[in-house]
Amino acid sequence: LQRDLEEVRELLAKATRKRLRDVLMAEKLKLELEIKNQSPPKPKDGAEEEKLSLGGYTVKINNYGWDQSDKFIKIYISLNGVQKLPVENVQVNFTERSFDLLVKNLNGKNYTMTFNNLLKPISVEGSSRKIKTDMVLVMCRKKREEKWDCLTQVEKESKDKENAAYDTSDPSEGLMNLLKKMYAEGDDEMKRTINKAWVESREKQSKGDIPMDI
């Protein structure tokens, strides 16, 4: 993050266009806020190093499920046999906008998962973890009882950018952008359907049946 911030500052110093400067300034403020919100890394003592080494190598967890209630964000992580571990081998550290999960020595491996920049603040004291059969449930207590649209700020910004890309005052342009997105993400059948519709619309336009190219 610090290196990103330094590069943004360099670009900002060179930028002359107002629009570009505004974008870079927004990115600079965002990075500064992320760096400020990050908790400083805790130095590992000898005991922690030894515990981590017990499980051999470390695997980063990428698959999970989640849902929410009025009071909690619930993250479900499937790990076969996790219920057989000593409870101290399953650790979760919470901050107001993040949490780290560490599962030690499960079938000869360590497992980790980190969530940074949660969408909204959580209560550290009210958050916890539960060990179930083949699953760890991380319970993040919301500070405010409100619905979350996604888990992290990064996900929200990604969705906002995607929506903005297809939000246009020109209906024909908006339709074209939507068709491009559907084509890029669709399967072979979807691509064939869109291609057929495109050919038919071009034929109608060439005959003067429709005035607008869709």
From TrEMBL:
UniProt-listed GO biological process terms: heart development
Domain CS: from-to ranges: 59-152
Key word Transmembrane helix present: no
Gene Ontology, cellular component aspect: cytoplasm; nucleus
Pfam families assigned to the protein according to its UniProt record, in alphabetical order: CS (PF04969), SGS (PF05002), Siah-Interact_N (PF09032)
Cellular localisation: Cytoplasm; Nucleus
Keyword terms: Acetylation, Cytoplasm, Nucleus, Phosphoprotein, Ubl conjugation pathway
Highest taxon, organism lineage: Eukaryota
Domain called SGS: residue spans: 137-214
Gene Ontology molecular function: S100 protein binding; tubulin binding; ubiquitin protein ligase binding
Database matches in InterPro entries: CacyBP_N, Calcyclin-binding_UBL-bridge, CS_CacyBP, CS_dom, HSP20-like_chaperone, SGS_dom, Siah-Interact_N
Role noted for this protein: May be involved in calcium-dependent ubiquitination and subsequent proteasomal degradation of target proteins. Probably serves as a molecular bridge in ubiquitin E3 complexes. Participates in the ubiquitin-mediated degradation of beta-catenin (CTNNB1).
Protein name, per record: Calcyclin-binding protein
Organism: Opisthocomus hoazin
Top-level taxonomy: Eukaryota, Metazoa, Chordata, Craniata, Vertebrata
